[in-house]
Amino acid sequence: MDLLSAVVFAVLAAVHLLGWLLTKEQKAGFQRLLADWLPLAGRRPTRRPPPRPWALPIIGNMVQLGLKPNPYECMADISRRLGAVYGLKLGPTEAVVVNDMASIREVLVTKGDHFDGRPNFLRYH
C-alpha cells in the first residue's frame, strides 16, 4: 500500500468513525470535497513553473510590488535577480512576467496560441 492509499484509507476511516459528530450537510460537503480531491491527489505537474520570489501566504508578492512608487520598477529588480521570465503570486492569481524582447516575441508571436488566455483581474492605474 503506497502512502497516498494509506492516507485516503485513514481519512475515510476517521470520517466513518466520527460520522456521528457531523451533521448530514457536513458529511455531504466533506464527501464532495474528497470526491473532487482524490482524482487530483496522485497527479504531478507536467511542467516546471518559472522561478518565483518568496511570497506571503494570502497576498503573495503584492507587498514586494508596493515597495517602490511604480510596480514595474519592482518587477525590473526581480528580473535582475531571477531572469527574464519569472512568476508572481498576486493574491490568489499566479502570473508569469516576461521582460526581454526575445521572450516577449516567443510568447506573443511564436507560441501565441499557448499564451492567449489572460486572467481578468484588477490592475493598478
Provide the fold topology:
Layout: H1 3-17, H2 24-41, H3 62-65, H4 71-82, E1 85-90, E2 93-98, H5 101-110
Please give a structural write-up:
The chain is mainly alpha-helical and 125 residues long. The protein folds into 2 domains: 3-41; 48-125, no CATH class. Helix content is 47%, strand content 10%. It contains 5 helices and 2 strands; from the N terminus they run ααααββα. The chain has helices at residues 3-17, 24-41, 62-65, 71-82, 101-110; strands at 85-90, 93-98. A two-stranded antiparallel ribbon has the order 1-2. Strand 1 (85-90) and strand 2 form a beta hairpin. The longest helix has 18 residues, at 24-41.
Short description:
The protein is mostly helical and 125 residues long. It has helices at 3-17, 24-41, 62-65, 71-82, 101-110, and strands spanning 85-90, 93-98.
